[in-house]
Amino acid sequence: MTSDHRVHFYDCTLRDGQQTQGVDFSVADKRTLSLALDELGVDYIEGGWPGANPTDDAFFDEPPQLTNAKLVAFGMTRRIGRSADNDPGMAALLNSRADGLTIVGKTWDYHVDLALGADRDDYVEVIADSVRIARERKGEAIFDAEHFFDGYKANPDYALRCLDAAYQAGARWIVLCDTNGGTLPHEVSRIVGEVAQRIPGQQLGIHTHDDTGNAVANSLAAVEAGVRQVQGTLNGLGERCGNANLISVIASIALKTDFKTRITDQQLKELTPVSRLLDERLNRAPSRGAPYVGESAFAHKGGLHVSAVEKDPRTYEHIDPARVGNQRHIVVSDQSGRSNILARFREIGIEMDPNDPAVADLVERVKAREFSGYAYDGAEASFELMARRALKQVPDYFALSRFRVMDDRRWNARGELVTESEATVTTEVAGREMMTVANGNGPVNALDKALRKALLEFYPQLEDMRLSDYKVRILTPQAGTGAVTRVMIESADGQGRSWTTVGVSTNIIDASFNALHDGLTWKLYQEGAHQAQTPRRPHALEE
User: Fold this and answer.
1) Who is most buried in 299, 436, 454, 525, counting CB within 10 A?
2) First to last CA, the chain
3) What is the reported pTM?
4) Of 327, 292, 291, 270, whose CA–CA distance to 41 is shortest?
5) What ranges do the domains of the chain cover?
């Protein structure tokens, strides 16, 4: 067991994370993520595999200038029958502009026999040669022991011989890989402890996959057992079920243990922004339930929970969310009590007396709305508008007189089947009634465009607003095509804000309009827009 308490973090998002189905990083993506990881303070960034594809070649041809981390190139050992100096794969690694090299080699005798068809003794020498030249030419060599845990369980003597060869050849790190993700924490603890009796823990690392849902647990167990480098990916990206989530590993080690890292308290606050940056580059929604950094990680829904958190956050929050760049989120739902409503009010800047009858009225209103299908725990903007409308704080920026949406499915002159949507909207703004028409790639898009056409003249603040997500849920499936539907619309603007609104109706277009109306209104309210003089018409939710 090592007495050194310094843990090093090795990010392999750009290479191992790219094995995820549907993920294909561009050179620009890799550079952006590398710089973000460098600012976060990780020790190593694995940039890719030079010689494997044009993207990785281009990335290493002009690598980003890093301040904190070492940029590492990944590749295989030399081929059997070739010297390390005369192997094309090794040459691409050695000639790259990386600061160090990670060499992967097999340590399971079954793979050496079956996959490589090699003599076991010869392959041990292959590992030693590859690590030796990597260290000599690049100064730092890391050996990834592929399928180590399976190999150790099958033939511990041979698996350890492979590790010894890399260690004696000068590897800075010997990384124990649970390549198929099938090892459990108690096995990791035992095996790592046994290996640490042979190779110093200051030179041991761990690389786990999440096929049993234990990648983070296995990584933490390995650190407790002696390893001092942890490999992982942002948000647990990776093939099959993913790799160890480096976000969770970093936060857990830094905030939950006595181990030391180079990551400062200020850098820890970048965990949430970096996690969301990855999702943004992948054009996907962040996981709300992600540990530490998810939107729901510090969300409180039950009224009793909120009361307790208000008195002592430690009751239901294992850390202060600000330490990882996140924030507490009070959810308003049909389980809400006064505590939820008052806490949510404070979040949006409304101070109210707990004994004000309006609070009790709003609690009952929320419960009644959610009973009819509204969901305010995921549509905070609609909740804020409902609350401010009840307090007479939201102007009537515009009124809808009527709308009509048509879909036209036909064959065009070139014999192509096309579907077009057209929306006609009649609105009242500043005392004027206007009819606008717009085409869209669907009925909601057409309706949104027609509304914008009418409103932009009076409210130029809407110019940078866009719809970023649209979700529909059937609430009464037993009603068939006449079912009640709930529409959730997420909007965003050029200032980096995003907000979600909700609409419910038996007519999906009507539900969409209600959500659109709230989205536009919330944007205008946040911008402090002055109300155009519009004849008063009740909002659909007030009728």
Assistant:
1) 454
2) 70
3) 0.70
4) 270
5) 8-281, 299-371, 399-542
Angle value at C-alpha 163, between 159 and 166, nearest 5 degrees: 145
Cβ-Cβ contacts under 8 Å for 351 (sequence gap 6 or more): 345
Angular region, 513: left φ>0, alpha ψ -120 to 50, beta rest = alpha
Helix (H) or strand (E) holding 338: helix 338-347
pLDDT in tens, 443-452: 999 999 999 9
**For 299-354, how does the pLDDT look when each residue is reduced to its tens digit (9 = 90+)?**
766 554 555 555 566 667 899 988 999 877 665 554 455 666 666 677 777 777 77
φ, ψ of residue 57 to 5 degrees: the values are: -60, -45
Q: At what angle do helices 185-195 and 156-168 cross, to 10 degrees?
A: 50
Contact at 8 Å (CB) between 489 and 501? yes
Question: CATH second-level architecture of 399-542?
Answer: 2-Layer Sandwich (3.30)
Helix (H) or strand (E) holding 273: helix 271-281
Q: Which CATH class is domain 8-281?
A: alpha beta
- Exposure string (b/e) for 169-179, b if CB count within 10 Å is 16 or more? bebbbbbbbbb
Token pair for residue 77?
């050992």
Query: How many CA atoms are closer than 13 Å to the CA of 191, on its beta-carbon side?
Result: 26
